[in-house]
Amino acid sequence: MLWGRRLRLFANPFPQSASPSWRESGAGSLRGWRCSRGPKRLGRGSWHEGPPTLVPLSSSWALASAAATLEAPSVQEDVSSALLAEFLKDSRKKEKLLWGQLQVVDALQSFLEHMDEAVNPEEEIRAEVSAAHRLWKDLKAEYLKQTEAVEAALLQALVQLEAGQRKQLLLRSTLQQIQTKGRALEEWRSRAQTWRRQEQEKRRQELTARAQAQRERLENGGQQQEQVLMLQGQETQSAQRLGAFLGLMEMLHGAGGGAEN
């Protein structure tokens, strides 16, 4: 029973209670539809011969039929609850899909009706060409403006680059001069330290020699002073002995003269 109902639903998506006018016009027949033959318009100013197509006379009637189908009560059958729930879920999905397709058909029919209105393709083309020309002019003006700005920025950047290169050369030469002066100063300081050490060593040697000579002179002077003192002592002793001898001689001479008298 369930599969038979599904097959009947696919064969006739519109139930009998949905649209009496459909049954009266003959379900499954082509009555109520018009056959469209002839050239098919593809775009502005172009036509193409295509196969005949079926176009509904009224999309509102189809939408009303689908709405009536969705609102129709479901047939109660002697089936299990699980199969019935699955069937109702599947049927609801198909009904929603059919409803969406009918809405798309209605939108396409409305679009085709508006395309049949009289338009002047030449004026529209001229307007599009004019708009494209204006857009091209605007883009060209913007391009020229941006190009001028880029050229000005490039010239300024080149000037700054040249100035930076000159400053770099000046700094490099200044650095070389400073390095040269630093090396010369280092050499002069090294020579000065060497000369100072040599002078200090020479002065130390001279002072050492002078001190040694002074020490020698002092030692020699002390020896000479000792010799002088020794000689003075000897002369003093000689004078004392001579005085004693002379005194003794006078005493003897005095004694001899008294005896003669």
Query: Mind describing the biggest β-sheet?
Result: 2 strands, antiparallel
- Please bin the fraction of helical residues: over 70%
Listing every helix as H and every strand as E from the N terminus to the C terminus, the arrangement reads HHEEEEHHH
Q: What percent strand?
A: 5-15%
Rounded Rg: 72 Å
Mean pLDDT: 71
What class do helices, strands and sheet pairing give?
mainly alpha
* Separation, N- and C-terminal Cα atoms: 216 Å
Global morphology: rod-shaped
- Name the quaternary structure: single chain
Strand order of the largest sheet: 1-4
Characterization of this structure:
Pfam families: Zwint. This is ZW10 interacting kinetochore protein. One of its GO terms (cellular component) is cytosol. This protein is mostly helical and 261 residues long. Among the domains are: 117 residues, no CATH class; 60 residues. It is 78% helix and 7% strand. It has five helices and four strands, in the order H-H-E-E-E-E-H-H-H. The strands form two sheets. The chain has a two-stranded antiparallel ribbon with strand order 1-4. A two-stranded antiparallel sheet has the order 2-3. The longest helix has 140 residues. The termini are far apart. 2% of the residues are buried. The N terminus is likely disordered.
